[in-house]
Amino acid sequence: MSGFEERIKNHAEHVCNVGSHCTTEETTKQALILPLLDILGFSPFDPTRVKAEYNADFPGAKASERVDYALFCDAVPVMFIEAKAHGEKLDNHCPQLSRYFNATPEVTIGAITNGREWRFFTDLANKNMMDEDPFLTVDFTTLDPALVTRLQQFKHDEFQPEALRILAEETIYLNAFTDAISSALRSPDTDFVRYVASKAGIQRQFNARFIDSVTPIVKQAIQRSVSEMVVSGLSSGAVVAPPPVEIPTQPEPVAVSTTDETDEKADVVDPNNAKIITTYAERRLFEITQDILGADTELAAKDTESYYSILFQGKVNRWLMRYQGDKKQPSVSFCIPMTDERKREIERAGLELGASDSVIIMQPEHIARIPGLIFDALAYCSDDANFKRKIAEA
């Protein structure tokens, strides 16, 4: 443990021991606030570094309003501190601190503290306008060891405004990401379940019914994986591992295809015809089309020796598109005529026309660039009149 870390740890113990005796603001300053400033290299006995009751002639401020402490580096104010008594809550004092902060462009950090809790602010949202929410909160009665290294960046000799802004931004991102991950793990939504199922190599159509059926299993998997991560991260014999999470021994079964479970991209061979091989690219094409049109759209896939079709309502004469992926330039053909407007959509998407008005797609993901054609194809296949005319003409 470094000397700085040791001093911060001792200060935290000091706050816990004497905090309850600091019943006034002045006592709090002397017993809790100034000692921390000294640890940070801002000696309260050096007026070139710490100025109490600092008056910066703030525009519109009352004559009696002064910031409790202004911290200086190289004769420039860099941090304002508003002090409150140990027993006071800090929620209602930020407007006063923000007035001080906003009036002094040189200041990059504003802090409000009751000696026990410190809240640090900067101006990420609007330059020279103090943010409403702190980017860092330190409670010395329940000190998180991970915050000690962050406090070190507030030391006089290491004080760099831009580095602190980066720290503020990273801290906000870290908190936001942590909240998002925690929320997803506690109550996984449809997108999270879909992501887990796709990463697990489940070869199924991810429609609403399937997602609902596997959501409880994903929750169980989350519990198991978190428990295993905790146990594996503990030093053997150092602490007692938490009790194992109860996992039902017979979870709801999930039907999967006979695709090789060790490789989600493996080809699937038709057991009745070895010449019909459904590739990963073909399956991805179907998944992307389903995502574009919606999980409730009645789509089905049919593979043949010559091409892979995506059908409406499983009817072979109502095919939206036919994909030929075994060429040097894989392409897809649509059931609709290739009008000038549709050709312009293809051109805007950065794609090219191939033989017989097919669309060249080197990757199945490229189909997502032309959703207009996919919706037009669905509209055509959904209209019974289009197929009645053909019957009449025949």
TrEMBL record:
GO process annotations (BP): DNA restriction-modification system
Domain of life per record: Bacteria
One MF term in the entry's GO annotations: ATP binding
Chain positions covered by the region annotation Disordered: 242-262
Pfam families: HSDR_N
Coiled coil, from the record: none
InterPro entries xref list: Restrct_endonuc_type1_HsdR_N
Domain Restriction endonuclease type I HsdR N-terminal: residue ranges: 23-128
Protein's name according to its UniProt entry: Type I restriction enzyme HsdR N-terminal domain-containing protein
Organism: Oceanospirillum sediminis
